[in-house]
Amino acid sequence: MKNLIDIKDLSVEEIDDLIEVAKDIIANPEKYSHKCDNKILATLFFEPSTRTRLSFESAMLRLGGKVLGFSEASSSSVSKGETVSDTIRIVGCYSDIIAMRHPKEGAPLVASFKSVVPIINAGDGGHNHPTQTLTDLLTIKCEKNRLDNLTIGLCGDLKFGRTVHSLISAMSRYKGIKFVLISPDELKLPEYVKKDVLDKNNIEYCETKNIEEYIGDLDILYMTRVQKERFFNEEDYIRLKDYYILNKDKLKNAKEDLCILHPLPRVNEISVDVDDDPRACYFKQANYGRYIRMALILKMLEVK
Amino acid sequence: MNIDSIKNGYVIDHIKAGRAMRIYELLHLNDLDCQVAIITNAKSKKTGTKDIIKIDRDIPINLDALGFIDHNTTVNIVKNDKIVEKKKLSLPEKIVNLATCSNPRCITSSEKTLDQIFILTDKENEVYRCKYCEMSLKKKQ
Ligand SMILES: [Zn+2]
After folding, report:
1. By CA distance, what is B113's nearest residue in A?
2. CATH class of segment(s) B9-88
3. A5 touches chain B (CB under 8 A)
């Protein structure tokens, strides 16, 4: 694997392989603590995302490697108008692997054309964020011990939510997956995702506005945040942002072993009274994110 | 000019009525100094009306561009006053610099030197998506 730009770049076997390595890292962290001695990860964040950047940097440090980079475009030559290709060619001289986040969709793909070192897309606008999807898959695998035969509820912004679209396309490759799509009318899953992914793979799904309607059927409940920057008008945002608030009361008919996920940061879609519920897995999810990034760095640097 | 007689060149036939000017522009026919005839709203047995373009010179023609605009068009190649070949067109798998991405968040909106590349992702519904951001291309009718 030269680059990871889109989760679809990975086969099911490659994903399963990454998950196995990540599980082994969780079980035997000391075995991996010097695997990347003398290797350098560059984190090029053309837009800030502290959480994702720290996850990558922590992953590399835990492997014994070193990190360098920048955390926003204003502190880099990009603000002077340098192209992505030029920046990447220069940084390739200083590092062995690059994790890149960029506000423009497709920028990591452009970077990969000219890069001499592997590129990991750490998020490009509202487009792809493959390491978030890998994080979600590792979390599901570790918490449910399987990736097939699951009923997955997706709740909130299903229209613009890129993590939701990637998760649907990744999970649609496993057997026995059903989706419950929970959203207001304005934020429903786009038709092309239903057609190109769900219908194409004969995936069963239903749509509802009511979070409680199918809650008893769910194995996974994936909550998302309604993002302000996706709206053109403030009124719509304000009206839709509090459409779903998951609280203890709404969970009363949910399964004992439901697994509640959220890509974080949350605003108020999950009430804090859920945090201590054993079914809340979203903080664990952040921890799994580091492990899967460790596995990914190892794989891309071809470290055995 | 007798528009029926092309010595060496092309008769682009069965163009959907109204699309001839777009083809004229995309093939840069205005740059040619030979005779070019555009016939609009000609009678057609199949579709009622159609457009036709005749070019009196053997120039290289971008068949992908033609196929992209209207793949039902036929290209007749004329040599020594005779049609020697009829080319059937199909939707190209990939088009380069024939359309621009309308997504303001796309990398092509800020880096103008990048080629505008679209990939055919749904043949049945003629959907093209931007290679960079995957936004679907709204085809002009
Ligand atoms: Zn685009």
Report:
1. A83
2. alpha beta
3. no
